[in-house]
Every structure is written in C-alpha cells, then in structure tokens.
Amino acid sequence: FHKSPIEKQIFRHTLGDGILTSQGASWRWQRRTAAPLFRVSDLNALVPMMTAEGEAQAKRWAATPPGSVHAIDADMTETTFHVISSTMFGGKADADTREILDQRRQAGIEGPDLMGRLLQARDPETGQPMSDSQLVDNLLTFLGAGHETTAKALTWSLYLLSRAPEWQDNIAAEVNAVCGGAPITGEHLEGLEVTRSVFKEAMRLYPP
Asked: 174: part of which helix (H) or strand (E)?
C-alpha cells in the first residue's frame, strides 16, 4: 500500500521504516517475515497465554474490596501489554527496545516469537539481516498496534456488558457450555459464537 507524504511525516519519528511505514520491496520482505505469526494455527497456540493474563486480571479485581472503583481502560492496557509481551517478545517487553534486543542476542536469537523471527530474517535479494533501526521500528509497531487497539476494544466491550447484564449471563453460559469449566484454548474459539458476536458489535459501535 502506497504511503502518502503526510503518513510518513506523522509516523517517521516513532515508527521509522518498519512494516507500517515502509513500501515497495522493503515492505514486502518485512511483511513476509511477520506473516507466519498470524496464521490461525499459530494464533490458536497462543490462546492459553492470553487466557492466563485475563485470569490474572480477574483475580486482581476479585482481590479488592466490594464496591471498589477500577480504571478499566488502564487495566485492559496493562493486561494486553502482558499478552503481547509473552506472545510476541518472549516475556521481555518491559524495558527499552534496544536493551531488549541486546538481551535477546546474548541469550540466543532462536525462538518462534516475533522478535526471534525478525532477528533471523534475511532480505531475499541481499541476504542482509534487518538493521537495528528496522528491528526497533517493527517491534514498536507491533507493540503499539498489538495491545492498544485490543485494550480499547475490551474496554468498550466491558462497558457495554455492564449496561446489559443479560448478555453477561449469555456469555458466561456459553463459555461454561463450550469449555466445561476448563481454561479457554484455541480449540474452543469456534464454539464461542455469542461471545464473538458481542465483541464484534462492541467494535462496530466503538471502533478501537
């Protein structure tokens, strides 16, 4: 997709020449490098990690006194940050990006996560790896796009559910019926039709 001059001007200071802002051959090979991460089978394998972070947040809420007030938007931002940290960055998204790269190199670059794939990627035309600047630009792109938008979608979904208790009950009943009390995994997603419809309606009303 061609990037307009105004888009480049807006994003160049934060996202540099990553997958969101590059175009042509540079975009194409970065896109091919990241694409396998987003196959359905690969994403479904990450669901238990996502579920664990959701359960951890629910426990934090449950541990507070009844009637406590929570900043749900901040809680969802924290939760989704932990999700992308564990699924895309090997649990190491809590420091400066260049520092994270240095730590990963010292520990070895193998791994199926996003950082591991980017570190091992080679330009098919030149055989060169991504520069540190490209690596940082792409990690920042996925970190921003991967958890802020999801946090907003979850925040508005919870807001709408708080105003419609009957749909809370419908979701709870469906999850119990499909999962039988077990943690949600990728195998369960297809059966969660009501839950999926609720999230889609929330995103239609309040696009993240």
From this structure: helix 165-179
- For 83-132, the DSSP string reads HHHHHHSTT--SS-HHHHHHHHHHH-S--SSHHHHHHH-B-TTT-PBPPH
Higher-pLDDT residue of 100, 71:
71
Which run of H or E residues covers position 196?
Answer: helix 193-205
d(CA 162, CA 160): 5
Q: Judging by beta carbons within 10 Å of its beta carbon (0-12, 13-18, 19+), is residue 191 exposed, middle or buried?
A: middle
**On the CB side of 133, how many CA atoms lie within 13 Å of its CA?**
6
Mean pLDDT of 16-35: 81
Nearest Cα residue to 135 out of 110, 118, 114, 111: 118
CB within 8 Å of 136: residues ≥ 6 apart: 16, 97, 98, 101
Between 131 and 53, where is the model more confident?
53
pLDDT of 112: 67
**95, 120 Cβ separation under 8 angstroms:** no
Please compute, for residue 132, the number of CA atoms within 13 A of its CA located in the half-sphere on the CB side: 8
Closest by CA to 122, choosing from 18, 25, 30, is 30
pLDDT band at 61 (very low <50, low <70, confident <90, very high): very high
Q: Is pLDDT of 153 > 80? A: yes
